[in-house]
Design brief:
Layout lengths: L2 H18 L5 H12 L4 H8 L3 H22 L1 H21 L4 H17 L1
């Protein structure tokens, strides 16, 4: 796997983790945090928990599958990304349109409120 693909995967797992962390077991949460957030190697995690590297790998892979399953069923990350895309689009339209300054200010306030809800 290329460095760019690894980075994309790490970013995706971290985003999924943000949405679904509470739905994972404590062990899954811990291993994913160590591996993806803290950049521990499989060997370092294995040493910390006195288990094999293979066991760590399997726990992480299973946790990734669970995150993907939740996303497939609930789609929170997809909805989040779509909302952000639409907010950016709305902001670009507002910046380029010839509406009154007071209307623009109201729209910007709404955009800011929606962004703060994230």
């Amino acid at each position: 796997m290329s460095q760019e693909n690894r980075l994309e995967k790490t970013n995706r797992i971290n985003l999924l983790f943000d949405f679904y962390e509470q739905l994972l077991t404590e062990k899954q949460q811990t291993f994913l945090k160590y591996y993806f957030h803290d950049d521990f190697s499989l060997g370092e995690i294995a040493a910390e928990f006195d288990i094999s590297r293979q066991a760590v790998y399997e726990h992480i892979k299973r946790a990734e599958q669970v995150l993907d399953m939740y996303e497939e069923k609930l789609g929170l990350l997809q909805k989040h990304e779509q909302r952000n895309h639409e907010l950016e689009r709305l902001q670009r339209i507002t910046e380029s349109s010839s509406m009154s300054e007071s209307d623009k200010m109201r729209i910007y306030q709404i955009i800011n409120q929606l962004q703060q809800l994230e």
